[in-house]
Amino acid sequence: MAGITYEIDDKSILEQIQGDAKRIAEELVEAAHLGKGQIVVIGCSTSETLGQKLGSHSVPEAGKAIFEALQGVFAPRGIYIAAQCCEHLNRAIIIEHEAVPNADIVNVVPQPKAGGSFATACYKAFRNPVAIEHIRADAGLDIGGTLIGMHLKEVAVPLRLLQKTIGQASVIAARTRPKFIGGERAVYDERLKDGYPKF
Q: Which of 197, 152, 147 minimizes the C-alpha distance to 176?
């Protein structure tokens, strides 16, 4: 059972999933004020997008469809996807090497049932994919309850997007912002209140 992956007979389901993912990515870019060089961590259960239990129904076609939709929004803006692998790979990250040129890389190639279908799609599509164990992303999408918090910068702010699902999976979005420090006498840079600015 551990090696089984599934296919989708009804291609309209893939079209719906892609449309949902595209709308969510567009909303996230706007709400999180994302720009060139920033990183969005994505945790994605293709099982959940199809109404199945997390980790039970890996669907490479769905992972590829979601990746293509997100990348179609993020890549033209110079925003990087950091794909969170499933727990079998300790939630390692698959990302383009150029986004993290000085990171300590680890040696693993994700597979649909050991890493997840979304991370596998990213690995296959990226120009120079690497796996790393830790990242501090600027924003994130949790598709189907995959728990991405460990890969966000410390002050994460939940975002309430209009598009709340991809397929049948609930999606939780977050952005991050710099910490306020110094107490009541401190003076703050208002440009930093809503996130990391594009200097």
A: 152
Range of the domain at 60: 11-192
Mean pLDDT, residues 86-103 taken together: 95
CATH of the domain at 138: 3.40.50.10360
Which amino acid does the sequence have at 72?
A: G
User: In this predicted model, what pLDDT tens digit does every residue of 133-164 receive, in sequence order?
Assistant: 999 999 999 999 999 999 999 999 999 999 99
Q: Is residue 199 part of a domain?
A: no
Q: Give helix 60-74 / helix 11-31 axis angle, nearest 10°.
A: 30
Distance CA 43, CA 93 (A): 10
Which residues does 98 contact at the CB level (< 8 Å), separation at least 6? Answer: 128
Q: Is residue 86 part of a domain?
A: yes
| Number of domains observed in the structure of the chain | 1
